Amino acid sequence: MRVALFVTCVNDTLYPRTGQATVTLLRRLGVDVEFPSQQTCCGQMHYNTGYRHQAEPLVRDFAETFADYDAVVAPSGSCAGMVRDIHPRVARRSSGRVDPERVDAVAPKVYELSEFLVDVLGVTDVGAYFPHRVTYHPTCHSLRLLKVGDRPTRLLRAVRGLDLVELPGADECCGFGGTFALKNSAVSAAMCSDKLRHAADTGAEVLCAADNSCLMHLDGALRRQHSGVRTLHLAEILARTEDDPHGTSWSRATRSLA
Amino acid sequence: MSVVSLGMPAFPTTAESATRDAQLRHNLRNATHTIRDKRAHAVAELADWAELRAAGAAIKDRTLRHLDHYLVELEIAVTRAGGQVHWASDAAEANRIVTELVRATGETDVVKVKSMATQEIGLNEALADAGITAYETDLAELIVQLGDDRPSHILVPAIHRNRAEIRDIFRQAMGRWGRPAPEGLTDRPGDLAEAARLHLRERFLTAKVAVSGANFMVAETGTLVVVESEGNGRMCLTLPETLISVVGIEKVVPTWQDLEVYLQLLPRSSTAERMNPYTSTWTGCTEGDGPRQFHLVLLDNGRTATLADEVGRQALRCIRCSACLNVCPVYERAGGHAYGSAYPGPIGAILTPQLRGIASALDASLPYASSLCGACYEVCPVAIDIPEVLVHLRERVVERSRGHLGERAAMRAARWVLQDPDRLRRAQRMAARTRRLHPKRLPGPGAAWTDTRDTPQVPAESFRDWWRRTQEEER
User: Annotated region Disordered: where (chain B) (predicted)?
Assistant: First the structure.
């Protein structure tokens, strides 16, 4: 099985450690994951903001870049959802600029990380170790577009040392919503503060999700508030082991962060 | 449909002041979460909910595809049963028709059944201009009318008020409109309801003309259907001599059998009831029973144009249950008034810009009043893919409005970078090299981010550079 990583443009540019964690985790589970270097972006920002035609070339390029793989793993619920749910619609409405057949051939092979682990690899215990209290926010596109259900929490429950506490109002949006965070910043901030209040109520030290765009928004507010809670992508928890509890083997491989 | 929106600021402006109103936030949170939870329970009772939902969407879709046929069938049936049918292409025409019909009775007072269509066209205001007073008889609509306020929810128009506020409104305003509130009125729900009952009872017994909407119109028999909880609708539909119903053309269903589906979907989705307490149906006029004159005003007001749009037309399936409002995180924090129309919440954000266009700043801002979280689509009993329509309407705004020049340029530039991995790599390296110079507070549109959040730190090395440096060397 040829497996490709679709790291997503947000992770590629801002959160490379999530990509590194995903690679480390998949290799530990015996998957020789490849990174097709032609990949860039799924076009979600353009599509969701009303620029469908600008998204078309990105949709077409995605289908070409990943055409030869059996599975494509994305550490992002919303980008995986964009490809699986929206790309076929964009192709169909493109008046021939994007070939629907090429898109349809790739879209169903795209998996959000937890789906790939649980459904394709058939594992829930990935051998991870993370001795911290964690609460999990199921991001909207994972929850409602992909319907990943309890896969992420099953994976987290199997992590040794991890104390998973339920997040009240978990299924409510965090308020990111892409350009919504800019265009309706007051409502976005109000949604964010409610989400963070719920997270703080759990007493967790880590707020985990499988989407760094939502976490960027939540983390930005947490840092502004000098909160004691930190955010962490699901992959970065699952990649940690008892031999490497801080993920130094993979996160030190990059030049260290400021 | 321009009554409310004239000169109203765009959604984000009104929404921002709503987010600062602690009382409003508290009222809305309490109310929406209560209804939301009850609805989930009521829906979970039915094992065939998914099938009902699919049927609800399919029947509406099929009816809308043959709308011309069913509307004519309806007109023939209503006329045969002794009613009169009037066709109104827009709000002004509908208001004119209703005003003339009321004038012809010689009356200057009308009682009203809660109706979205008449709110949409601003009927009460039009009647007032003609010297006719319209009295709302639904409890929540009464609260709104007495408070000189606007509805903020489709089903519970006074959702933004708590009972202490309602008591104050009753004490201050009831006397001006009719029977005053009882002495020593408390804010106990039972006492408030009793005060409203006494106030309204006089109204029902003296009214000669009633105005209603309808939840459904059955084409095969020309029957109209109103579902309600309080019984005020039953009073208005049966006691007066003249009944005028203003109904959107999308409310028609072909047969009585189709009601089977909607009379299950609607109450569970809206009030979380298995069946609504009052279901009134009437067919034209019947000698010695109910109104002696019945007029049906069929309202287009943008519906035909909406039907012409392949993506947007699904909004016409809406049965006004308001489940989407009750689960919407944006509605919960912005409140209903920010939407500036009779239709707040997610359904309003896709219906209003289609019914009245996107010419005003408010209407052009409505498709953006969503984080696209998808909770609305999930609960919609007729499976309207609201996020899909929102994005579709954003496209329309982008193409037609001049206010998006900067954004359009930025999007084009972003696409240019993102379409080519080498350009993306160069942009990432540029960002990494300058990362210590990135300001903590961004200027321009970026300030909307940094007003409440820190910006993420750009890493020294992108993932693709790390991969090239470490992985490709290994291979």
Answer: 431-475
